[in-house]
Amino acid sequence: MNVPAMSRRERQKAETRAELLAAAHQLVREQGYDGLTIRKLADRVGYAPMSVYSYFADKDDILLALAEDVFETLAARVENKQFDDPIESIRSSLMEYVSFALENPNEYLTVFMTPKVHQHGEETFETLKKNNPCLNLLLSRIKAATERGQMKGDVFAIATILWSSVHGAVSLFITFPKFPFGESREFAERMIDVAMEYVTGREITALADSSNCGIIL
Fold it and tell me: How many CB atoms lie within 10 A of CB 78?
């Protein structure tokens, strides 16, 4: 089926929205969550504040778009770290997550540690999962590992344990910069080693409420 080409007006609107989103990313990287306001965003691109509302309903709408952008960027980075051995691919996925967080601490704080960003009203977890390609990559790599007998148990539970481990580590790196962790990546590798040893050394049962997520693998 042929997809109709965008009209000139639609193309201009898409380009302006992309420009605003890029400027929002930059504001967050420089100033964090509090640095992103409609006025500052408008000033950054040279538009009147009211014109921003033609593209985003409010700050929450911008934050949701930022989060989706970050998930896609992170997924692209993770996808480039693909190996024949699923276990090696999983480890590389987790370390790429760590690297992104350390390279972009303000953006990580805003997207992954601001509760308001993830309060999506009536959306189901399954809908949110579809919009998170990085999570889907991790799930697919864990599934490949289970199919080879390298891991046993519930794929979603394994992914949740591994993600919780690296998220906990990078969250501490960012919020407690004076704590003597040593070299951040080296400490993260230790955390990954511990988590991987746990999930490869036993059968992982499903999470208590995972049946409500509607996840099909």
Answer: 22
